Amino acid sequence: QVQLVESGGGLVQAGDSLRLSCAASGRTFSMRRMGWFRQAPGKEREYVGGIRWNDALTYYADSVKGRFTISRDNAKNTVFLQMNTLKPEDTAVYYCAAAIQTSTYDVWGQGTQVTVSS
Fold it and tell me: Interior CA angle at 39 toward 84 and 61, to 5°?
């Protein structure tokens, strides 16, 4: 199975930038896509965006489009979430996820806290 290791979370001020990283290891040959989700206190987990592994096509939620960018390092099986112009509303636990063999995200990282102060 695929294992995911995240890094890059932290505390920043509104307007700042932050980049999250997620490295995949294991049976990465069967990985179809990698993505990012977030969950704020009292809210459902929200889809942030993803990248299709075969052709690097990206998807973004409307709430982050234009501010967040997903990219990948194919050789290292690593995906990045570049977050710019951060807002307090972006405060959440951010999760990296991978879809193995199907389009369903079924492997998850441990989550990393992103806190944006005003």
Answer: 50
pLDDT digits (tens, 9 = 90+) for 92-102: 999 999 999 99
Name residue, tokens 């879809």: 99
**How far is CA 97 from each of CA 37, 56, 103, 106, 117, rounded to the nearest angstrom?**
8, 15, 11, 7, 26
Q: Show Cβ contacts of residue 64 under 8 Å, excluding neighbours closer than 6 positions.
A: 48, 49, 83, 90
What's the residue count for the chain?
118
User: Hey, what are 13's tokens?
Assistant: 């001020």
Instruction: For tokens 């009292």, name the residue.
Output: 42
Q: Which two tokens stand for residue 55?
A: 């052709």
3-state class of 97 per DSSP? strand
